[in-house]
Amino acid sequence: MHQVHFYCWHFMAYPYLPADFDDKYESGWVTVPNSLWDHERADTLYQGYIDQLVYAEELGFDGLVLNEHHQNIYGLMPSPNLIAAALTQRTERAKLVILGNILPLHLNPLRVAEEYAMLDNMSDGRLIAGFAIGGGPEAFNYDVPQPQARRQFWEAVDLVARSWVEDGPFRHEGRYYPLRYVNLWPRPRQKPHPPIWIPGALSLETMDEVAKRGYDFFLSSRRHDTATQMAVERFADRVEAHGGAFHPYRMGILLSVYVGESDEQARAESREGVWYFLRNCVKGHLRSRGRNLTFGPGVPSASVTSWETYLERADPTTNNFGDVETWEELDSWSSVIVGSPETVRNRLWRMIESFKLGTILIQFHFGNLPDDLTRKSMKLFATEVAPKLRSDSGALFAEEFPALGEMLTRPGAAA
Question: What domain range is 200 assigned to?
C-alpha cells in the first residue's frame, strides 16, 4: 500500500540571539551582524542538530531534509552537503534529502554533481538530489542577477543530470558552462541517477520546467490554503501537458509542527520557540513588517507575468508570515501546526485529503526550541500522529489513484 511519506526537515536555526533582537535589528537575513555569534554557547550546536536528525531515523521517519542558506540566522547550513556527509556515517535507512544546492551560487555545477555522487555512494544509494535557484536573500548575498540565474540554473541542472548518466568524457557547449571535458568520477550509485527534487513557489515557469524533465516539485510556500490547492492544480496540469502522470509523490509541501499531550500544553511548551522563529528567524525574509529587502524584479520569477501576479497578491494591509501576532492568526496560515496528537492529526489529514499529496516535509525544531521538547514532539508525532495518517492515506491513494503502482514503476518515476 502506498502511503504518505513523512520527512524530518531541519533548518538549524541560530538559537542564542539577545532578547532585544527584534527591537534592535531590522532583519535576520543578509545584514544581521555576525558579532551576535556566541562562540561558547554555539560550541556543540551542529552536533546537537545532527543528533536530532539521527533520532528522526530511529523514530521511523522516511527521510531527513537539509537545505542551503547563507548569511542568516534562519538556517546555519551554507553547505548542507557537509551535514549530509556526517549523516551517511550515522544513519542506515532514511533518505538523505538536500533541498537543495543553490546552483547559480556555485562556480561550476560539476562540483555539485561530484559531491552528490560521493554522497550517494557513501549512503548506499539514499541520496535525493535537490537543486534550487535560490531565494532573494541568497541573490543579495552573492550579488547574482535573478533573471540570468534562472537560465543559468536550468543549464546547470541539465548538465548535472547528463553527467550522471552519459559516459565521458564529452563536451558541453553551454552558454554559462562551456566545458571541454565532462567526465564524472565517481558516478552515483542509483540508476539512472538519484531522484531529483526542485523547490519553488507559484511560478508557472518553474513548474513547467520541472514537469518537462519529469522531476518532482516541492512548494516552498509558508501558507497552505487555496494557494496550495492552486499550485497542485497548476503543477498537475503541467505534468499532464508534458505527457506525464500526476500522482501524490510528484509534489510535496513543507510544514512546521509541534505536538504536545494537549492543545494547551503544546502551546505552552512551544510558545517561546515559535515566536522566536517568527520574530527573529523569519524577520526580513520575503516581506516582513513592511520591509522588502529580499524581493525585486526577477525574484521570485524572471517573467513579467509572475512578477505582476506577486505584486497583486502582496497586499501591504494584510499580515505576512513574520507579522502574525496571535495563535489564531498563525492557525489561519496552516504552516505552523501546534496541538495535541488528535489536533495535529486532524489538521494534517484535512490537507492530505484536500491536496492529495504524498510527501510532507516537517520542521520540528524551530527558533530556540530546546532539544528535549523537540525530541518529545518528534516522538509524539511518530507514535501518535503518523501511523493513522499513513493508514488512512493508503486507502485514499488507492481510491483516488488506482494506477499508482503502475505509475511508480515507469522509467524515471520516483516515490
Answer: 5-408
Could you tell me the CATH number of the domain that includes residue 81? 3.20.20.30
Asked whether residue 137 is assigned to any structural domain, the reply reads yes
Question: Are residues 59 and 91 in contact, defined by beta-carbon separation less than 8 angstroms?
Answer: no
Q: Is residue 367 part of a domain?
A: yes
120-136: per-residue pLDDT in tens? 999 999 999 999 998 77
Domain count, the chain: 1
214: cell is 519529469
Cell output for 141 = 548575498
| 298, 301, 302, 305: CA torsion to nearest 10 | -110
Whether residue 414 is contained in a domain is answered as no
> For residue 164, what pLDDT band results from cuts at 50, 70 and 90?
very high
82-115 pLDDT, tens digit per residue, is: 999 999 999 999 999 999 999 999 999 999 999 9
**Is the pLDDT at 343 greater than 90, yes or no?**
yes
Backbone angles phi, psi at 175, to 5 degrees: -70, -40
Look up the pTM and report it. 0.92
Q: Assess if residue 311 is contained within a domain.
A: yes
Residue 233 has a CB neighbour count (10 Å cut-off) of 12
Give the Cα separation of 288 and 294 in Å (integer). 10
